[in-house]
């Protein structure tokens, strides 16, 4: 049996990964871990005030011993053209745009809205669904042209997709839709070895979590089997990077709960 050190230490070497929402929170941790395992990473963000954080992350990644390449693309994935803008910006930064290959897409950018169902507005609906659902769909469509065989698509869902949390129905429903996409895309794209999976975290400290009602977070924390604590970005990243690599080749259409056992299904 042939083995090489890099196969184990850098299983994603030579792969190009796009991480949406890679400027902060879970996405920044995902970009770091994918790069740590060898991938070259395109970090997608939207807010101009996140640019310094993206530059810092790129510097940190470039200092890894194997010197991964990074690119940054600023685009609004809630808009109908945002995903195509990412591809255009990425092509303008790489050496050989004619032969662009995107091996891994992580649809991580997401947003929540807190409001009771009876008061939810069309604007809030559009804010949440245009990013969490349509944005993930358009980003995946945009990447398909460049996705080689054995490609990897990973969607960031939430334990909320299958739990009726009060006051966040748009978020809950958007993540349920994303899990539906995950299964259907897995069926459509599996022919050439491409896998599509979702990771559903429980609460992880981030700007997004700060906006979720404290009572919901406390309820989850106090009933989490593992150590009654919140998850960490690293714990989520370890699962996402495993799904992004060769060891997960027989896993597709799945939702992996990253919640310390808060959900068990
Ligand atoms: N944190 C949790 O407890 C938790 C639990 C379960 C699931 N999740 C899911 O994990 C993912 C990441 O969550 P997080 O907590 O890390 O969120 P976060 O800290 O609020 O970060 C959101 C990221 O999405 C980007 N983004 C927002 N709107 C965008 C748009 N219109 N176009 C492009 N990028 C956009 C932001 O970019 P800028 O910095 O440029 O604004 C930022 O990088 C989300 O899908 C979330 O639903 C989180």
From TrEMBL:
Pfam families: adh_short_C2. Residues 15-202 form the Ketoreductase domain. InterPro entries: KR_dom, NAD(P)-bd_dom_sf, Sc_DH/Rdtase_CS, SDR_fam. One of its GO terms (molecular function) is oxidoreductase activity, acting on CH-OH group of donors. PROSITE patterns: ADH_SHORT (PS00061). It comes from the Eukaryota. Keywords: NADP, Oxidoreductase. GO terms for biological process: secondary metabolite biosynthetic process. Belongs to the short-chain dehydrogenases/reductases (SDR) family. This is 3-ketoacyl-acyl carrier protein reductase.
């Amino acid at each position: 049996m042939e083995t090489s050190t890099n196969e184990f230490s850098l299983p994603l070497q030579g792969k190009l990964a796009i991480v949406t929402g890679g400027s902060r929170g879970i996405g920044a941790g995902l970009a770091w871990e994918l790069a740590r395992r060898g991938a070259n990473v395109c970090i997608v963000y939207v807010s101009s005030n996140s640019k310094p954080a993206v530059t810092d992350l790129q510097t940190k990644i470039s200092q890894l011993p194997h010197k991964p390449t990074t690119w940054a693309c600023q685009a609004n994935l809630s808009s109908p053209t945002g995903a195509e803008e990412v591809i255009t910006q990425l092509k303008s930064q790489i050496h050989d745009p004619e032969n662009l290959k995107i091996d891994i897409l992580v649809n991580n950018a997401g947003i929540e809205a807190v409001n009771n169902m009876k008061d939810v507005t069309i604007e809030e609906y559009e804010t949440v669904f245009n990013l969490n659902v349509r944005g993930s769909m358009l980003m995946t469509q945009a990447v398909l042209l460049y996705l080689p065989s054995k490609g990897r698509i990973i969607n960031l869902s939430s334990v909320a997709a299958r739990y009726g949390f009060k006051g966040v129905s748009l978020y809950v429903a958007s993540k349920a839709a994303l899990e539906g996409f995950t299964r259907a895309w897995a069926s459509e794209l599996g022919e050439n070895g491409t896998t599509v999976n979702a990771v559903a975290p429980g609460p992880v400290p981030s700007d997004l979590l700060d906006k979720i009602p404290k009572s919901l977070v406390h309820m989850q924390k106090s009933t989490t089997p593992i150590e009654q604590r919140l998850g960490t970005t690293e714990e989520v990243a370890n699962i996402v990077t495993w799904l992004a690599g060769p060891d997960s080749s027989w896993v597709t259409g799945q939702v992996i709960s990253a919640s310390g056992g808060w959900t068990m299904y």
